[in-house]
Amino acid sequence: MQANIIISKATKTLSGTIQLTGSKSECNRALIIEALSKGKVKVLNISDAADAVTLAAVLKVHSPWSIVHSQAVADREPSTIDRQPPTMDHGPSTMDYVDIGPAGTAMRFLTAYLPLLDKNIIITGTKRMQQRPIGILVDAMRKLGAKIDYQVNEGFPPLQIHSGFQQKTDRISIKGNISSQYITALLLIAPSLPLGLTLEIEGELTSKPYVEMTLAMLQQVGIQHTWDDNNIHIANQPFKETSILVEPDWSAASYWYAIAALCDEAELFLPALTPYSLQGDSVITEIMANFGITSQFKDGGVHLQKEAKPILRKIFDFKECPDLAQTVIVVCAALGHDATFTGLETLKIKETDRVAALQNELAKIGVKLTEKGQVYKLDCSEKQIPEKVTIRTYEDHRMAMAFAPLALVVPQVEVEEPQVVEKSYPAFWSDLEKAGFKVDGYSIA
Ligand SMILES: O=C(O)C1=C[C@@H](OP(=O)(O)O)[C@@H](O)[C@H](O)C1
Ligand SMILES: C=C(OP(=O)(O)O)C(=O)O
């Protein structure tokens, strides 16, 4: 465990260039595609995000092809994978064991992918991962023909995946309002299923841009689909020989937008980000325009600039960009901007209950986030700025990164368990230092 760090910033100004790591979402999709394509598709600009590193290491061992598929992957230590002795429960075959830690997308994508490998594998994750629901996806995979058992609690990891997958149907109906990751997981394996797959999405679809990202990436590698009303269809079809270039992570960029929004003056360059991103979180450019941040795409990246202007927007919806919720809510709190938020339903089943975590930590500066049905209101009327605030991170990278910008308002922000940022943005603290923040107690592990 790492010691707490204390963040401070002498001036409310920001300048320079920050090179962000690759998108965890794009990279995790690309890695699964690379594996299923048996190396026909290569991944370029693999992300440093721990979740992507872990998934790459798992796929290095558990892949339908034996060639070591990319040097970057080959160099990584599969530290989370152990071959266990056979267990009595699963007959004579070897039971492999995969621990994907806190990586939600990796857990969901592997739950669809691993049954295709004809192996016996237990897949588990952190204590929190064992509380993140997966029943909807397991039910869908069972209907498709996978043999999956729950090891401890019905509906939650760890899962025992057994060999012997045989596709039983080409049509699955699946709820869309809990996590889009279940849908992405199924779409990623669809072209490799002998009968292809038609997915009927029941009810509303949450986090829709992530499903669009999946389909766009599949299209890039030659996989066609149709999407009519609620039905997405992908036939069995081959991947084309090509590469996928992972873009920098727009969710990571959001913290720099937040910092800029809390500065008096800001001019920052984020290379390689484009306005045509597959990542729905690129909508941060529009959201932050309300806080005076202009985004100019030139020189092969985006230039952020701060203009003083009144904040007029009062309602923000995060249904299509849930990972931006903490960033924007903390900015509103720091600026004392009372606002209303919707689309936060899925936040309760992410790395932590993010609504409860936000409520607890915002209370430390006297800001209330109240819940009425599906509408959340921020009340800054009793906001008070202490000399120092200590932020709990609840094993959630986004709690650490969303609250760090508060150092522009509170003289000292202490962050507990700062290593959580490794999940998606390992260089976050060193990038803050580069940008002129003082980060005391920080050491690269
Ligand atoms: O598909 C993806 O890469 C993701 C989908 C979203 O999850 P939900 O679909 O569960 O909202 C998002 O919160 C997560 O960080 C990444
Ligand atoms: C929810 C997230 O990740 P995951 O579901 O992949 O753990 C996130 O990165 O905010």
Tags for this model:
single chain; 445 residues; alpha/beta; UDP-n-acetylglucosamine1-carboxyvinyl-transferase, Chain; 2 domains; five-stranded mixed β-sheet; four-stranded mixed β-sheet; 13 helices; binds shikimate-3-phosphate; binds phosphoenolpyruvate
Question: TL;DR?
Answer:
This protein is α/β, with parallel strands linked by helices. The protein has helices at 24-36, 50-61, 71-74, 104-113, 135-144, 180-189, 208-220, 250-262, 284-289, 325-335, 354-362, 397-403, 428-434; strands at 5-8, 13-17, 41-44, 81-83, 95-99, 120-124, 147-150, 159-162, 171-175, 197-202, 226-228, 231-234, 242-245, 265-271, 293-298, 301-306, 315-317, 340-342, 368-372, 375-379, 388-391, 412-415, 438-440. It is 28% helix and 23% strand.
Overall description:
There is one protein chain. The protein is of the alpha/beta class and 445 residues long. The protein folds into 2 domains: 5-22 and 247-440, Alpha-beta prism (UDP-n-acetylglucosamine1-carboxyvinyl-transferase, Chain); 24-245, UDP-n-acetylglucosamine1-carboxyvinyl-transferase, Chain. It has 13 helices and 23 strands. A 5-stranded mixed beta sheet has the order 4-5-6-8-7, covered by helices on one side. The longest helix is centred in the first third of the chain and has 13 residues, at 24-36. The radius of gyration is 22 Å and the shape is globular. The site of phosphoenolpyruvate has 9 residues, from α4. Catalyzes the transfer of the enolpyruvyl moiety of phosphoenolpyruvate (PEP) to the 5-hydroxyl of shikimate-3-phosphate (S3P) to produce enolpyruvyl shikimate-3-phosphate and inorganic phosphate. It catalyses: 3-phosphoshikimate + phosphoenolpyruvate = 5-O-(1-carboxyvinyl)-3-phosphoshikimate + phosphate. Pathway: Metabolic intermediate biosynthesis; chorismate biosynthesis; chorismate from D-erythrose 4-phosphate and phosphoenolpyruvate: step 6/7. Its main location: cytoplasm. The active site is at 323 (proton acceptor).
